[in-house]
């Protein structure tokens, strides 16, 4: 029963953001009392870090559509007790249905001719961006992955008491 409800919540969260026509980061949507998905996530991780005296960083995977917006948004967390790192996922060409040819002609073609692959690209993008190497240099071994609009997915303190833990939204 609990899994059904969580699954339904995830579907509704994705459907709501997908149908708004927004081009910015979903994490910036206001969800409660003037707070966004990202505000609540930062608050959760900050509480976890302070209560357990750990340093669990927040890693945000962005796309070519959301990267600049995300960089602007996270500036407001500069004085929080959370280290935030961003990295950009890959982009792939949209395919023209009639010809099965790629829509973009060059790498500089307009954004609408490309699409971000999503979480399927997570590990490759972590490696390509250099973030994975940095995490390993920092001694991190475990990665918690969740969509930024999934407030039901929370870090559990007893899993994070190790300095080897990192959160990725």
Structure description:
- The protein is an alpha/beta fold and 169 residues long.
- The protein has a single domain, classed as Spore Coat Polysaccharide Biosynthesis Protein SpsA, Chain A, CATH 3.90.550.
- It has 6 helices and 8 strands, in the order αββαβαβββααβαβ.
- The strands form 3 sheets. The chain has a 4-stranded parallel β-sheet, with helices on both faces.
- Helix 6 links the parallel strand 7 and strand 8.
- The longest helix is centred in the N-terminal third of the chain and has 18 residues.
What do we call the CATH topology? Spore Coat Polysaccharide Biosynthesis Protein SpsA, Chain A
Counted by DSSP, the helix tally is 6
**What structural class results from the helix and strand content?**
alpha/beta
Q: How far apart lie the N and C ends? A: 25 Å
Q: Any idea what the radius of gyration is?
A: 17 Å
Number of strands: 8
CATH H-level name... which superfamily? Answer: Spore Coat Polysaccharide Biosynthesis Protein SpsA, Chain A
Average of the residue pLDDT scores: 79
The profile of the biggest β sheet is: 4 strands, parallel
Count of discrete domains = 1
Query: What percent of residues adopt helix (DSSP H or I)?
Result: 25-40%
Second-tier CATH architecture: Alpha-Beta Complex
- Gross morphology is globular
Largest beta sheet: strand ordering: 4-3-8-7
Order of helices and strands: HEEHEHEEEHHEHE
Low-confidence stretches: 1-19
């Amino acid at each position: 029963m609990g899994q059904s409800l969580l699954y339904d919540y995830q579907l509704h969260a994705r459907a709501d953001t997908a149908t708004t026509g927004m081009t910015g980061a979903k994490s910036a949507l206001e969800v409660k009392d003037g707070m966004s998905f990202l505000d609540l996530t930062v608050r959760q991780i900050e509480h976890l870090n302070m209560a357990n005296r750990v340093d669990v960083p927040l890693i945000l995977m962005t796309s070519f559509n959301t990267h600049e917006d995300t960089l602007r948004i996270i500036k407001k967390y500069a004085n929080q007790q959370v280290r935030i790192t961003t990295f950009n996922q890959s982009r792939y060409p949209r395919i023209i249905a009639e010809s099965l040819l790629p829509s973009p002609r060059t790498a500089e073609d307009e954004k609408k001719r490309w699409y971000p692959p999503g979480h399927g690209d997570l590990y490759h993008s972590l490696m390509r961006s250099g973030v994975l190497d940095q995490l390993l240099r920092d001694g991190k071994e475990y990665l918690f992955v969740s969509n930024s609009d999934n407030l039901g997915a929370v870090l559990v303190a007893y899993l994070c008491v190790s300095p080897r833990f990192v959160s990725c939204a």
